[in-house]
Design brief:
The chain is α/β, with parallel strands linked by helices. It has six helices and ten strands, in the order βαββαβαβααββββαβ.
């Protein structure tokens, strides 16, 4: 497949690029600073842009089978970037007629898991309060994606870890795995690549966790 990856220098984005290349996909990595993309071996096509406008991004998505995005705030002071940058991506995709889109959000933005216990509800409440601006940004990003004409999927992991890919995790379409508290960034990438061709995830939020 021909894939374009936004946020390709982030933790999840780097893993998407690496795993997609290993799987034999043709990858375009969209970055602001190519020096921050430490992909070894046969590398991706690197497209340098600051996502200033949809017109600037159109060549990066033209003719692609799918777009995968790891865009988002890296700290509370960056709240707002997920919505703003994703809006640019959506404009470029719609102008080029590219349909398939997968984006990373976060578990607290989606529905509470069925049967969640007191501990999970309490942790969710605390995290949501501390990162309320970041999650408000992600909610608005999700709303923008849902209003678009793309075949979208929103992937919602819990607290992220730096761990090797395992391929062993749980997914719930339209919900979230019970007692799912952690997920490695590499497995977020693995899940997104697996969902790229999965029609059951189109137009859905998907909870993913160990």
């Amino acid at each position: 497949m021909k894939l374009t990856v936004f946020g390709a220098t982030g933790g999840v984005g780097q893993e998407i690029v690496r795993q997609a290349l290993q799987a034999g996909h043709q990858v375009t990595a969209v970055v602001r600073d190519p020096a921050r993309l430490p992909v070894t071996g046969t590398g991706p096509e690197v497209f340098r842009t600051d996502l200033s406008s949809p017109e600037a991004v159109r060549p990066a998505v033209s003719g692609r089978d799918a777009v995968l995005s790891g865009l988002g705030a890296r700290s509370r002071k960056d709240a707002g970037v997920a919505t703003r940058l994703t809006r640019t991506v959506l404009g470029a995709m719609e102008a080029e007629g590219v349909r398939r889109l997968l984006v990373v959000s976060a578990a607290p933005v989606g529905p509470e898991p069925k049967g969640a216990g007191l501990l999970d509800r309490s942790v969710r409440a605390v995290v949501s309060a501390v990162l309320k601006d970041v999650y408000a940004d992600l909610r608005e990003m999700e709303a923008e994606v849902a209003r678009s004409r793309t075949d979208w999927t929103v992937v919602r992991p819990p607290r992220l870890q730096d761990k090797p890919v395992t391929g062993r995790y749980r997914t719930v379409v339209g919900g979230f795995p019970a007692k799912g508290r952690f997920l490695g960034r590499a497995d977020v990438a693995h899940a997104m690549l697996a969902m790229t061709g999965d029609a059951a995830t189109v137009g859905q939020g998907v909870g993913v966790a160990y």
